[in-house]
Amino acid sequence: MVLGAMHSDRIEISNTNGLLHRVRGPGLHEPDYTVNREGDGEVWLGLNGESVFGYVGLAVTDDLIFGLYSGRTLDWMNEMEWRGPSAGQIVVFTWTGRWLS
Prior knowledge:
Structural class: mainly beta
Radius of gyration: 15 Å
Distance between the termini: 20 Å
Strand order of the largest sheet: 1-2-3
Strand content: 35-45%
Number of helices: 1
Number of strands: 8
Mean pLDDT: 81
C-alpha cells in the first residue's frame, strides 16, 4: 500500500505489518498551517498560503510507484481562475522507496 501526502512531498509505503518506508520527493515541502480551535472544542487545520498541493494522484505497478506531484502553493492556486490542483511533474519511486525521477 502507498499513501501520498496531499500537502507535502512525502509518500509512505506500507504492508499489512505496518510502515516500511517514508520517503521524500522533489520539493522537500512541509505543510504550512495553523491549528485552529473553535469555542465548542473543535480543532481544525488551517492551511496557510505557502502550503503546497503535494501528490494529487498515485498509480502503481508491481515494480514502480508513480506520483502526480503539484508542488504549487495555495496562494498560487488561488490566483488561478480555475482552482483545481494542477500538477507539475510525475515522480517515480521503487517499492523500496528509492526515488528514480
